[in-house]
Amino acid sequence: MSAPAHYAAAGPGPAWPASTRWTLHGSIVLRWILFCVLALLAACSNEVTLQSGLNDGDANEIITLLRRAGITTEKVKNKDGVSVLVDESELARATELMQAQGLPRRALSHLGQVFKKDGMISSPLEERARYLYGLSQELEYTLSQIDRVVVARVHVVLPERVAPGEPVKPSSASVFIKYVPPLDEDLIVPRIKRLVSTGIPGLSEDAEGSKLSVVMVPAQAVDQGLQWRRVGPFVMEMSSAKDFLRLMTWSIIALVLVAALVAWQWARRLPAVQGLLAARFGRLKTSA
């Protein structure tokens, strides 16, 4: 690009006017600002879907857990339900945290849903299977409301109908509880037995161990270790990544201020702006 003929100087090369030089400088600064903004957006937009098809309750529970662990999440609603998005570098740690807490919780059915009238006649065997399933689901839902319980499973066995005169076999049940320590098993196991025994017909609270068993399993703690995060093309430790993003933010702010200063200095050298400033300050001096 060469200077216009009327801007040429008598020297060995063309002489650029001040307004053109400021225009070139401002263009370079604006390009650097655009590059930094795009790099920052690219560092913050590398997200993947962690879970999809959730309801609001399950999604909020997952988001609360992950944000307490320092993982940034995003909640997106669509026609299939709610999706939870996380940064790609946090996918493995988020999955481990969810598994340790038993999230998302298994969808449970209550007796009203199991025995919903659908206009078809069920056989006695089907009715019995549905009754056992609904009874187990109701007990699992109740046990899952206990604090620090993340997974609750109940398996119920009811005796078959016997002929008149034959002894009636008692019912039996087995309960599996996965919990997050600390939890006093000596205190909670008798309460679970009392709850289950009174909720299953034919099972007494003082049943033998072979008729009602409760297995308590503590959840394994997730080893946090070093937390990594991807920032653009770089992978760095979490605290360093936060400092880097903070530095990038302040750098962009500084560049914007410099660009504004450059634009102002350039604008002051335009004849039209000079005329407006002279007229403005001239009126102020006259009124003073």
Automatic annotation (TrEMBL):
Gene3D superfamilies the record matches: 3.30.300.30, Hypothetical protein rpa1041
UniProt entry keywords in alphabetical sequence: Cell outer membrane, Lipoprotein, Membrane, Palmitate, Signal, Transmembrane, Transmembrane helix
Domain named Flagellar M-ring N-terminal: residues: 46-206
InterPro entries: AMP-bd_C_sf, FliF_N_dom, T3SS_SctJ, YscJ/FliF
Source organism superkingdom: Bacteria
Membrane topology: Lipid-anchor
Chief site of localization: membrane
Transmembrane stretches, start-end: 22-44, 244-267
Compartments it resides in: Cell outer membrane
Protein family (similarity comment): Belongs to the YscJ lipoprotein family.
Stated name of the protein: Lipoprotein
Native source species: Ideonella lacteola
Gene symbol of the encoding locus: sctJ
